[in-house]
Design goal:
The structure is a single chain. The protein is built from eleven helices and eleven strands. With 369 residues, it is an alpha+beta fold. The strands form three sheets. It has a five-stranded mixed sheet with strand order 1-2-4-3-5, sandwiched between helices. Strand 3, helix 5 and strand 4 form a beta-alpha-beta unit.
Length: 369
């Protein structure tokens, strides 16, 4: 999601918070993979036995990380704002840069058949892998931290391990994944990258097309990635091969900032449902059809939007109780249910014509699930 423009003072504060987030990620990595003593030395800037100074860690975890976030933020398909959709030219350039950063850390890299970029630790470490990552695509007019923060954080943490000689001593593999699609802007089908790895992406997703008529499969082929229905399922990771997953992400809302808290721990994941609604009416001349005889779908769409807003603000006024929905369920919805209409269009979309239909009305419902 797009983040609001920050003042210079808030930007400085956020960069400091970014350093804190990366340091915590480092601590989680170190504590879960080898002795806590070594991890504490690194995270809190104590000089280690090899004489590596703490300013090196600041350089990697703060200065270089911030520089990389800014660099990724400049890779855009648009002028004046950040836009990077699934397998767009800017997305491909960003993926290439991230892969170079992975190799700089000392990881083995590859791009899978859904365009996800992977980097995995080398060596003889076996067993279940720790996965870390986020998405490299963006919404339209995005903030530079959305998605990129999780990728850069992971690579910065692993780079500290590498320069201190600890990367090859891990007791289990670590894999960083830059997911090709999370936002779903281009194909209106979210989580293409992670859904493929989770094994829940239907093969029919390959045939979804964008506004230009290009399918997901076609976009992959344009980038020299041959993906057929039969090998899509091969992208699924065996759950028994995964030890855990960590993702650092910017808060996509004002709650922590309002509370004056730099960090929060996720307790629930927002699930979402997207609906495409078409409201049909009777097309006519805007100047000659009497108001009493009109069937204006744009007015109907507006009423639906207001109704949905009321439902999400006060779900208890609209929901009935049964075996699947009791009072506690409704109460939980009251604090977590959100809905948004982000796009609407009409036909024929002329100022002097009553629309014949209002369509592509995108609705999103998200609750802690």
């Amino acid at each position: 999601m797009a983040s609001p423009h920050l003042s210079s003072s808030k930007t400085l504060i956020f960069f400091l918070q970014t350093l804190l987030i990366i340091s915590i990620l480092s601590f989680i990595l170190f504590a879960s993979l080898f002795s806590a003593t070594a991890s504490t030395d690194i995270c809190f800037g104590v000089e280690d036995t090899e004489g590596v100074k703490n300013d090196l860690f600041h350089q990697i975890l703060r200065d270089e990380a911030v520089a990389r976030l800014n660099e990724l933020g400049k890779i855009s398909d648009a002028n004046g704002y950040l836009e990077r959709t699934f397998l767009s030219p800017a997305s491909v350039r960003a993926a290439h840069l991230i892969r170079l950063w992975m190799e700089d850390v000392g990881l083995i890299t590859w791009v899978d058949q859904m365009g996800n970029v992977h980097g995995r630790t080398k060596g003889t470490a076996s067993g279940k892998a720790l996965l870390i990552g986020s998405h490299l695509d963006t919404v339209i007019d995005a903030g530079i931290f959305d998605g990129s923060l999780g990728i850069v954080s992971a690579l910065s943490a692993l780079k500290v391990l590498n320069v201190t000689g600890r990367l090859g001593k891990l007791k289990r593999p670590v894999e960083v994944i830059a997911f090709s699609d999370e936002e779903g802007v281009r194909f209106q089908s979210t989580f293409l990258g992670s859904a493929a790895i989770a094994g829940i992406l239907p093969v029919s997703a390959l045939h979804i097309h964008d506004k230009s008529g290009v399918t997901v499969q076609g976009a992959l082929k344009e980038n020299s990635i041959e993906t057929a229905e039969e090998n899509l399922l091969q992208l699924k990771y065996d759950p028994d091969s995964v030890w855990g997953y960590i993702e650092v992400h910017i808060e996509q809302g004002p709650v922590l900032e309002l509370a004056g808290l730099p960090l929060g721990v996720v307790k629930g994941i927002a699930g979402q449902t997207r609906l495409k609604v078409t409201v049909k009416g009777s097309q006519g001349h805007a100047g000659t059809v009497p108001m009493s005889m009109r069937q204006d779908p744009m007015v109907g769409a507006a009423e639906l939007i207001v109704l949905m807003e009321s439902l999400c603000k006060n779900p208890k006024d609209f929901l009935s109780y049964d075996d699947q929905c009791d009072a506690s369920t409704v109460e939980s919805l009251a604090g977590s249910l959100v809905c948004t209409v982000g796009e609407i269009s009409s036909w024929p979309s002329a100022s002097n014509v009553i629309p014949g239909q209002a369509s592509n009305l995108h609705c999103r419902y998200a609750g802690n699930g």
